[in-house]
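For the sake of clarity, the format in which proteins appear in this thesis is described at this point. Each number in the token line that follows is a code from a learned vocabulary of backbone shapes. One such record is shown here in full, so that the layout can be seen directly:
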Amino acid sequence: MLVLTRKLGEAIQIGNQIELTILAIQGDQIKLGINAPKDIEIHRKEVYLTIQQSNNEAASINKDLITQMKNKQFRP
């Protein structure tokens, strides 16, 4: 993990397209401004992990359904 120190108003550049700017510092919280192309998804980590878990569960259900259909156990 790369650790960088930034002050209010300073930025970090990630590649050519993503810029993180420190907008505010209030106690133990900071506000980040993220400038990135619209096709890049940006989520808080806990939201991202929830999305991934939901996607994995949905994929698992589909695999089970396909297996049942192949085994002719599926009856609508």
